[in-house]
Design goal:
This protein is mostly helical and 211 residues long.
């Protein structure tokens, strides 16, 4: 995208709309930040105006839920952090509606760059392995499956899933959902690169690590 930029005298106009390819949004800590007005940032600006500006938690949640399908669709098409809970049929659902296999597949897909054979961040591998180990507590492997230190979820995912019968049909238990959300909130590590829920923490999920 080519951003023309704007004159110093026009900066104040970017608080209301894009000017010269630049628009001002509210950062995670509530401070104005100037960004290139691409699709993702225009979604950010729209949510600042329509959703994040609502201070009452109940009213904000109601506004989120009333625009649920639109927001999820725009996250998937326009934003750097897509909606996590997409099932094997390509349908956006709630995380509770994913099977164990679907959740692990989606995690690896979003956290590993297959074209470059690298993961986005090493802490992401730790999270995927932690969730895979949770698998093993829930499903008995069909053989003495080896998860040594060299085990890589991106390279060995299919054989891992094939060895855990039931993982492709069993929906996530509520205990696993809570565990997974806590795993995604681990402090001191890179924030996750997807959106988990449309809840009162949505602004944090959306804006965290945006730079």
């Amino acid at each position: 995208m080519q951003a023309q930029g704007c004159e110093n005298s026009h900066w104040h106009m970017t608080y209301d709309e894009a000017v010269g390819g630049v628009v001002t949004v509210s950062s995670e800590i509530g401070q104005p930040i100037h960004k290139i007005a691409n699709r993702g940032v225009l979604l950010w600006k729209d949510l600042d105006n329509r959703i994040f500006s609502i201070t009452n938690p109940e009213k904000r949640l109601k506004a989120l839920q009333s625009s649920r399908q639109e927001i999820i669709s725009r996250l998937n098409s326009d934003y750097a952090k897509p909606w996590l809970a997409v099932n094997s049929s390509g349908v956006s659902v709630d995380i509770e509606d994913l099977t164990y296999s679907e959740c692990l597949h989606r995690l690896v897909k979003l956290m590993y760059v297959y074209s470059q054979k690298r993961r986005i961040d090493e802490s992401y591998k730790k999270r995927v392995i932690a969730f895979a180990n949770r698998f093993r507590e829930r499903f008995e492997p069909c053989s003495d499956y080896d998860m040594s230190e060299s085990w890589d979820p991106a390279l060995h995912l299919d054989e891992f899933l094939n060895c855990h019968l039931g993982a492709s049909t069993e929906l996530l238990y509520l205990e696993e959902v809570s565990y997974f959300i806590a795993l995604c909130r681990t402090r001191g590590e890179k924030p996750v690169n997807f959106i988990l829920r449309l809840d009162n923490d949505f602004e944090t999920w959306f804006k965290k690590d945006s730079l």
